[in-house]
């Protein structure tokens, strides 16, 4: 190995401070780089003691002393029979500062930047070419999902926001600003290619924390696919209140679907795609959380958008524009207000919470009526009532299958619920329904 503008070699982690400076200087010059601990600067492999604590110390050092935050890969590796540590990193949010100072990589050295040089980096940063979604990807235009592109065009046409012919996909991609020569920009890859780094993790937890999960799933694909699948997952796993009228059955979701979908769109539109951490959707007993690894605009608060007139700070303008054209975004900067107003109209509590590692929207769930009965019920009685509240026409066989007990056991528990005055059968055995009396 030989040191370069994107590679630094360190004898051991005793040189961690110098390594952190090198990381910032490489990022400011090339937006990526690698550091190896356990190799002398002349390339001779010496080895390095490696433990969980060693890796943690490196991670904490990078997190504490480099601004803005980066998310490196830190791993043990064997080189010439010796234990070493590899740190790989990338980021396009320059200027990066190490210990409060900015550096630039020149050959294999780290030079301190002057205030004028820092100013130039900031000015360059504000040009389109430094947005992540404007950068050139490795995907070609032949790799796009044409069905997805056609669906987008149909939605944009119906919304009255884009008029174009479907038969010339190159012209369409170029018009949307998604091409860079023979390659797609990152925005084009994320929007219309199934092969990308985008992922959403979904999970259902049994209680109010992450101790026990009931279901976990990972979604991959383009933004539009993830929006559809994430929305379907939420619709399938939230509670629906059912009312029977004379002529029809009316179902109302516990959380407004419009608000959930708006939160999903915001989480994918405004996330920080250079961060390898994915989006997360978590359903707890008392709340639903939608998280994205994208920091909230510095100096602003969610309330500035909900009750104020702040304009949207676009992290991914190309992606945001396409989502606006398809009417997935109604108006830039209005997402939080729309979520807040929709929840307020249904008397649902919602919270917008900026985190150090991203942003989270929290929808609070009302406890099921059945949970208010306390110790009045046995476990199976409670589970049966919960299922009947969600579906008043559910057959006994379905209840038995969902709970994992016999139909006879279900019938015995139903008898107990009737004796307690909590359950009544309305109508005939076939075609009737259950009525819960709380």
The end-to-end distance, rounded to whole angstroms, is: 73 Å
The number of distinct helices, counting runs of at least 4 residues, comes to 14
Ranges where pLDDT stays below 50 over 5 or more residues in a row are none
Strand numbers in spatial order across the main sheet? 13-12-16-17-19-18
Tell me the name of the CATH class of the largest domain: Alpha Beta
Based on CA atoms alone, the radius of gyration comes out at 27 Å
Number of strands: 21
- CATH level 3 topology of the largest domain: Heat Shock Protein 90
| CATH architecture designation of the largest domain | 2-Layer Sandwich
The proportion of residues in beta strands is 15-25%
Summarize this entry quickly.
The protein is of the alpha+beta class and 438 residues long. It contains 14 helices and 21 strands. The chain is 35% helix and 24% strand.
Element layout with pairings:
Layout: E1 7-10, H1 16-30, E2 32-37, H2 52-65, E3 66-67, E4 73-79, E5 82-90, E6 97-98, E7 101-106, E8 109-112, H3 115-125, E9 136-140, H4 146-158, H5 169-175, E10 179-180, E11 183-185, H6 186-192, E12 199-205, E13 213-220, H7 223-237, E14 240-244, E15 249-253, H8 257-269, E16 279-283, E17 287-292, H9 302-306, H10 317-325, H11 335-345, E18 350-355, E19 358-364, H12 379-390, H13 396-403, H14 407-419, E20 423-426, E21 433-436
Parallel strand pairs: 1-2, 12-16
Antiparallel strand pairs: 2-5, 3-6, 4-5, 6-7, 7-8, 9-11, 10-11, 12-13, 14-15, 16-17, 17-19, 18-19, 20-21
Helix pairs in contact: 7-8, 8-11, 13-14
